[in-house]
Amino acid sequence: MKFEVRKYPEMSWSLSRHKTMLTCQRKYAYDYYVSHNGWLNDADTLARQAYRLKKITNLEMHFGSVIHDLIYQIIQRVLSNKEIPSEEAVVDEIRHQLNRSFIESTRKEHLWQHRPKHYTMLHEIYYSQTAQLPDHKIKKITNRIHTTVSNFFASRSFADVLNKEEMNFLESEKFRYMTVSGVKIYIVMDLLYKDVIKDKWVIVDWKTGKSSEEDRNQLALYALYLQQKHNIESLDDIVIRNEYLLEGIHVEHQLTEQDLVNVQRLYGISLEQMHSLLIDAEENIPKPIEQFPMQENPRICAHCNYQELCFPSL
To answer: Is the pTM higher than 0.90?
Structure first.
C-alpha cells in the first residue's frame, strides 16, 4: 500500500487529543498540525522541529511504555505456546531498556535529531542541559520495577491469559477506530478477549500509574466500540477491568447506558471545539498558530515538550 502524503492531517478524535486541547491549545496545534509531515526529508524547518519535539518522552511515560510493550510480548508468547520469561528476566529487560534510553538521550542526541522516531529523548535530559536524571525520579522508577512486574504476573487478567483454553483472544494493542459522522474515533485497548465459559467480553487496561477520573470515560469509549463492532446487545455482557500494577489490585466496572451517552456527548462537544480552531473543516486546515493561545500556568509549561518553540530565548 502506497503511503499518501497529505498537506493537512486527517481529522480524528481520541481522549488523549481531547485532553491536549483542554490543557493547552498551542501544544494541541504543535502536536496535531505543525508537526504534520515533519518526518519527511523535504519538510520545512518548523515542521521537522515540532515533530522532533513531539517525540520527546519523560521517565514515567517511557517506563509505562516499556511495561506495556513487555506485557504485550509476554501475552503473545503464552498464546503462541512459547516459553514465558521469569519475573527476574523481565525486570532485567526493563532495566536494560531504561538504561538504553538514558544513553540515547545523553550520548546519541545527534541520532535522535535525525531519526526521532527510532531513538529516545527524555524530557528530563533535553531541557535540563545536564546528563543527569533527578535522583527522586530514579528512586521512584527503581522502586516501581519489581512491584509492577510482580503484580502483573499475579494479576487476575494474566491468570485468564494462562487459562487460555477458556478464553477467545482478539488482537490487542492495535489502533482501532469507529467512525462517527465521518470522523475516526481512535481506541487503543491493551487486552481484549471473550470468556467462553461465562459468555462475557473482557476489556483489560493495564495501569502503571495511579487511578484517574478519566478512567471511566476511557472505559466507556472501549465499551461503545466493542458494542458497535460485535453487535453486543447488553452492557451486562461486557466486563471492563483496570489492572493497577502499582497497587496490585484490579477494579471491574459495570457501565450503564448513561456512561455511553456521556462519552458520546463528550466527543460531540469536543469535536465542535476542535472544528472551531479550523479555517476549513472539510480540509482540516487550522487557523494560524498565533490563534492557538498558550498555556499561562508555568507548572504545566515546565513539563511541555515545546518549551523551545514557545520560549526560544530561554
So the answer is: yes
